[in-house]
Amino acid sequence: MVKHIILWTLKEMSDSEKESVKAGIKEGLEGLKGKIPGLVEIKVITSGRLASSNADLMLDSTFESEEALKGYAKHPDHVAVADGKVRPFTVSRSCLDFEI
């Protein structure tokens, strides 16, 4: 199994815009469950952020294998969410992939 963790920082925008963007990212990415081979679990954390944080939201996902993670990266449904709901609104992205 492989964990794929992403932290994003959003671009400058109003609090209400941030909440809308976070909801769209959550809906889009969590909606990929059952559509991508090898994707075991996917959740986006958008709330509960403490003041000590330096990121706005987190993706926590699990894949059957490293090959499944590579397939996810280029899967058309994932690319559509990334290009339409994530990349236009983020200023930074950190990734940690590891075997469990």
**Rg (CA only):** 13 Å
CATH class: Alpha Beta
> What is the count of structural domains?
1
CATH topology: Alpha-Beta Plaits
Q: Provide mean pLDDT, rounded.
A: 97
Q: Could you tell me the number of beta strands? A: 4
Spans of at least 5 consecutive residues with low confidence:
none
Please state how the strands of the largest beta sheet are arranged side by side.
2-3-1-4
- For the termini, the CA-CA separation is 5 Å
CATH architectural group: 2-Layer Sandwich
Beta-strand fraction estimate: 25-35%
Number of alpha- plus pi-helical segments: 3
Order of helices and strands: EHEEHHE
Shape: globular
Which structural category do the helix and sheet elements fall into? alpha+beta
Tell me about the biggest sheet?
A: 4 strands, antiparallel
Q: What fraction, in percent, of the residue positions are helical?
A: 25-40%
Domain Stress-response A/B barrel: 2-98
Organism: Treponema ruminis
Pfam family, one: Dabb
InterPro entries: Dabb, Dimeric_a/b-barrel
